[in-house]
Amino acid sequence: MLTNLPDRESAEKIAEHLVTHKLAACVNVLAPCTSIYHWQGKIEHAQEIPLIIKTTTRNYPAVEQAIQALHPYELPEIIHVPVTGGLPAYLTWLHQETKA
């Protein structure tokens, strides 16, 4: 999953929440980037902190709900990117770390 936050503090807050509650096995908090997008009829430029969230399809609804509850944006970016393969040992670890 992918999302962007307006600052490092809010990015780390969401990342910590997702890992603490076993909704994600790992969250990468990346370096700031510049996002350029249309919003309410204008072109906006914003510095944002991207998150890469490693979770399972089973956990997607709960992760989406948590992001919406904690995210400061009116309309947060929440993108689900399906995993079609990967190192089996890593994928096993991911599933083990996200079991309730």
Would you write up a description of this structure?
The protein has 100 residues and is an alpha+beta fold. It has a single domain (2-97), classed as Alpha-Beta Plaits. Helices cover 34% and strands 28% of the residues. It has three helices and four strands, in the order βαβββαα. Strands 1, 2, 3 and 4 form a four-stranded antiparallel β-sheet that branches. A hairpin with a 2-residue loop joins strand 3 (33-39) and strand 4 (42-54). Helix 1 (8-20) packs antiparallel against helix 2. It is elongated and about 45 Å long.
Number of separate helices: 3
* Assembly classification: single chain
Q: In the CATH scheme, what's the topology name?
A: Alpha-Beta Plaits
How do the SSEs run, as a string of H and E?
EHEEEHH
Mean residue pLDDT: 97
Please state roughly what percent of the residues sit in beta strands, choosing from under 5%, 5-15%, 15-25%, 25-35%, 35-45% or over 45%: 25-35%
Helix-strand category: alpha+beta
Approximate helicity band: 25-40%
* Overall number of domains: 1
How would you characterize the largest beta sheet? 4 strands, antiparallel
Compile the SSE list and pairings.
Layout: E1 2-5, H1 8-20, E2 26-29, E3 33-39, E4 42-54, H2 60-70, H3 88-97
Antiparallel strand pairs: 1-4, 2-4, 3-4
